[in-house]
Structures are given as C-alpha cells and as structure tokens.
C-alpha cells in the first residue's frame, strides 16, 4: 500500500516547534497499515526536521541557542549573504539536522499511529527570521 | 513483505559503540528478501545512530572527543539542566547525528545481510553518562 | 516493485558537488512508479550526502568553509591521524551530515522523477583531499 499527501504548516517564528500532532493527524486520515513507514520530506532548504524530546520546551530553546552560536550569520568568509544574515546559517542547519524523517507506523483500532519512543516528538526547525509556511511531502508505505 | 521487531541493546558507557553484529543477527532471523531495506529507529532522545568506520576504534574515540568539546554540558545559556550536565548535550547530539538509519538489505544463500560499504558499520552513540539499555524498532520491507 | 542499482560517481575535489542530475538519470532508467521512494546509500565513511540549495554555488562554498573551521585536521586529541589531516574531519562530517537519503519519486509521462522542493538538490560532500570515485547503492520501491 502506497499513499502520498502534502501537509502545509503555518508560518512559525525562528526556533524549534513540535509538530507531532499535525503529522499524526494527517497520518490518521491515510489508509490503515498494520506495519508501515511514513516518510516525511520537508520541501525547503532553510528549515529542518528532527526527532527529539516532546516534553520540556527548554530543550527546544537550548538547541536553538546552541546552534545560533555555532553558526553566526556574519562570518567573514561567507559569500552567500544577499538574502540576509539568517540565510546561510539556515542552510547549514538544514544539512546538519536534515530535512527528512522515516517513521515507524502501526494502526491501532484501525487508525494509523506513529510508533516512536515515549519521549520522541517531531520537531520543525525554522531557521529563517521570517520563513513563512512550510510544506511537507508525506509518503506512507506498508501492509 | 513487511516485518517488524524490537531489538534491545545492553547498557553501554558514554561514547560510540559498533553494533553492526547485533543488528545483522536480528536481520538474519527475519524472512529473507532478495532486495529490501531495513529501517532502524532508536526509541530515545539522548543517544544516536550513525554509519561510520567499522575498523579502527580510534575513529570512535575521536568522534566522541570532538563532540564533547563542541557541546560542553555547562553552557551558561542552557535552561534544561535538571537532568545533569550530560543531558542537554545528549539531546544536541541526537539531532546532529540522528536516531534513525535505513539500510540496504539483500539475502545471500537465503539469509538477509546488510549491503553496506566495506568500511561501514553501525554506531550507537551513547551520550549519557549512565544511559541504560536502549531499544531499537526494526522494520524490514522488501521482496 | 523493488529495483536496485549501483551508481559510480567520478572523483571530485574536496567540497560540495551537486549530483541531482546523475541520480535523476539513473532513476529515469528504472521501472516507473506512480508513488515511490528512492533510497540512496553512499558506500563510504569519509564523504556525505545531503539535500540543500541547487542554485547559488556560494552556498556550497560557505558550507565547506564553515565545516573546515569547525573540525580542523590537527586537533591535538585526535588519535586517528595515520591517514592524513583530512581523514578524521571527513569521518566527523560523514556522521554530522549523513551518508544516506530517501527521496520521494513520482513518474511523469512514464519517467521517474524526484519530487523534491523547487530549490532542493542532492549534494555529494567530498571530504578527502583525494577521495577518488564514490559509489552509491540506489534502491527504488513503489507502485
């Protein structure tokens, strides 16, 4: 069984945001699979997707705080600067964190659910100051 | 063909550990596929999975040594500090390295094997001082 | 439908290189799928694969410039130094960026195409000074 959908996320401010609920809601509307995988592809190059803690929001704050210091926007050797000081760091984060996830799925009572660890959630990393809405390509395969 | 299993890894000390043999042993017990993919999902947010060299253990030492200096545990702007100095760096490494792998599989003489490069092995990154046992969700698909 | 091929890339100099065309050409020669995923596995531990901008080559320059400063080759605590100053950093980049991608595919007019975002391209990160040719294991699944 193969199924593909697009999910559009509303604009978020710069930082990390928990989007598990939005992905699970889209997944729940797809044909149920007893065993399967959901592939999630962010269709952008200045934002990221990663799995990390779904509880304390301070973890998301600290991740962003660390990354901003790791890649400041005004490094003297940066050449790709026309789109602003937040752009080249955003490209670096897109590659360091990645823009895709593949997630275990199993239907319970006929409804698809992510089969992740207790503390795992899906984070959107918005790395632009004004990134706008972001699109995800969702592909479910399974049986 | 779809098959799912859980693999529990015994507790390791902080650092990187080669776990190819344990994953291949679990894979060998699954129904054989001539072409397939094994998805490996670590069900935790303070450890990581990555592919890297399977030979010289110094590579694993150096990776850990580099990362410990990249993200010290006592950064003054960290807010998520209640679980100890090793916790927030562990979350950062989980996102920088990732917690999932998808691996080419092909059966030889009826037994599933990973089809990786000669020097590639699967590393578990244990980023907590006392991380305990770690669980992997294994999903094999193929034909 | 499952299909596997090997793609060999010619030697590139150290840095990031856009290889979308080579991957899409190999994909176009595979049996068409209306919905599917292409898994791309780099079979090496001192190079990387990542999705990032396919337009301005300065983004590739800046990524490489940043990474070279992040992990110099002569860190005093590095033990894995016999293969040269470029080797241990290459292993670090292979894990930070990753060596695998899973990419949405859909056939248009009977020919498989990647279904990525407008600005997304596949980058090969060549992290050795003289890395030689690099091999990719391509696995297409779909219906």
UniProtKB/TrEMBL annotation, chains A, B, C:
Gene3D superfamilies noted in UniProt: YjbQ-like
InterPro entries assigned to the protein according to its UniProt record, in alphabetical order: UPF0047_YjbQ-like (IPR001602), YjbQ-like_sf (IPR035917)
Pfam families noted in UniProt: YjbQ
PANTHER family: UNCHARACTERIZED PROTEIN YJBQ-RELATED, UPF0047 PROTEIN C4A8.02C
Annotated family: Belongs to the UPF0047 family.
Protein's UniProt name: YjbQ family protein
Protein source organism: Cobetia crustatorum
